[in-house]
Write a structure and sequence with these properties.
This protein has about 100 residues and is α+β, with helices and mostly antiparallel strands. The protein contains 1 helix and 4 strands.
Protein backbone atom coordinates (compact mmCIF):
# COMPACT_ATOMS: atom_id res chain seq x y z
CA UNK A 1 0.00 0.00 0.00
CA UNK A 2 3.03 2.30 -0.30
CA UNK A 3 1.54 4.01 -3.34
CA UNK A 4 -1.25 5.50 -1.17
CA UNK A 5 0.76 6.72 1.81
CA UNK A 6 2.33 10.07 2.49
CA UNK A 7 5.52 10.71 4.38
CA UNK A 8 6.77 13.76 6.27
CA UNK A 9 10.24 15.08 6.92
CA UNK A 10 11.67 18.09 8.72
CA UNK A 11 14.17 20.34 6.95
CA UNK A 12 16.05 23.49 7.91
CA UNK A 13 15.23 26.37 5.60
CA UNK A 14 16.01 30.00 4.89
CA UNK A 15 13.17 32.45 4.31
CA UNK A 16 14.00 35.58 2.31
CA UNK A 17 11.46 38.41 2.06
CA UNK A 18 12.21 41.57 0.05
CA UNK A 19 9.92 44.60 0.24
CA UNK A 20 11.54 47.29 -1.90
CA UNK A 21 10.41 49.58 -4.69
CA UNK A 22 12.41 47.53 -7.20
CA UNK A 23 11.40 44.12 -5.89
CA UNK A 24 8.63 42.47 -3.90
CA UNK A 25 9.40 38.81 -3.34
CA UNK A 26 9.41 35.93 -0.88
CA UNK A 27 11.48 32.76 -1.27
CA UNK A 28 12.07 29.63 0.79
CA UNK A 29 15.30 27.69 0.29
CA UNK A 30 15.59 24.22 1.81
CA UNK A 31 19.07 24.19 3.34
CA UNK A 32 19.50 20.41 3.33
CA UNK A 33 19.15 20.14 -0.46
CA UNK A 34 15.73 18.48 -0.37
CA UNK A 35 13.91 18.51 -3.71
CA UNK A 36 10.19 19.28 -3.94
CA UNK A 37 8.27 17.10 -6.40
CA UNK A 38 4.80 17.63 -7.93
CA UNK A 39 2.13 17.21 -5.26
CA UNK A 40 4.46 17.76 -2.30
CA UNK A 41 3.66 20.51 0.20
CA UNK A 42 5.98 22.60 2.38
CA UNK A 43 4.91 24.20 5.67
CA UNK A 44 7.32 26.75 7.15
CA UNK A 45 7.03 26.98 10.95
CA UNK A 46 6.93 30.20 12.94
CA UNK A 47 5.31 33.60 12.71
CA UNK A 48 4.99 35.29 9.30
CA UNK A 49 8.15 37.06 8.15
CA UNK A 50 7.40 40.75 7.66
CA UNK A 51 9.82 43.10 5.93
CA UNK A 52 9.31 46.85 6.35
CA UNK A 53 9.26 48.88 3.13
CA UNK A 54 12.74 49.36 1.73
CA UNK A 55 14.25 46.35 3.49
CA UNK A 56 15.07 42.68 2.96
CA UNK A 57 14.72 40.15 5.79
CA UNK A 58 16.42 36.73 5.93
CA UNK A 59 15.48 34.25 8.68
CA UNK A 60 16.40 30.65 9.45
CA UNK A 61 13.38 28.42 10.07
CA UNK A 62 12.29 24.80 10.10
CA UNK A 63 9.94 23.41 7.46
CA UNK A 64 7.88 20.24 7.25
CA UNK A 65 7.80 18.62 3.82
CA UNK A 66 4.80 16.37 3.20
CA UNK A 67 5.59 14.04 0.34
CA UNK A 68 2.72 13.20 -1.99
CA UNK A 69 1.75 9.57 -2.46
CA UNK A 70 2.42 7.96 -5.83
CA UNK A 71 -1.25 8.33 -6.77
CA UNK A 72 -1.29 12.04 -5.78
CA UNK A 73 1.93 12.66 -7.69
CA UNK A 74 0.50 11.03 -10.84
CA UNK A 75 -2.75 13.00 -10.50
CA UNK A 76 -0.81 16.26 -10.11
CA UNK A 77 1.22 15.55 -13.23
CA UNK A 78 -1.92 14.68 -15.23
CA UNK A 79 -3.98 17.72 -14.15
CA UNK A 80 -1.27 20.32 -13.55
CA UNK A 81 -1.43 21.80 -17.04
CA UNK A 82 -5.17 22.43 -16.72
CA UNK A 83 -4.75 24.19 -13.39
CA UNK A 84 -1.96 26.33 -14.84
CA UNK A 85 -4.20 27.36 -17.72
CA UNK A 86 -6.75 28.68 -15.19
CA UNK A 87 -4.10 31.13 -13.99
CA UNK A 88 -3.52 32.48 -17.49
CA UNK A 89 -5.72 35.17 -18.90
CA UNK A 90 -5.81 35.35 -22.65
CA UNK A 91 -6.92 38.38 -24.58
CA UNK A 92 -7.13 38.64 -28.32
CA UNK A 93 -7.89 42.07 -29.62
CA UNK A 94 -7.56 43.69 -32.96
CA UNK A 95 -5.51 46.84 -32.94
CA UNK A 96 -6.32 49.52 -35.44
CA UNK A 97 -3.51 51.39 -37.05
CA UNK A 98 -3.89 55.12 -36.61
CA UNK A 99 -2.42 57.28 -39.39
CA UNK A 100 -1.94 61.02 -39.11
Amino acid sequence: MGFLTRSREEAPCTVEVVHKFEELSAHVRLDNGAVIHPGDTVLVHGAPVMAPFGEAVVEKRTATITRASAVERLWTRLTGDFEFMELCEFSFSEEMEVRP
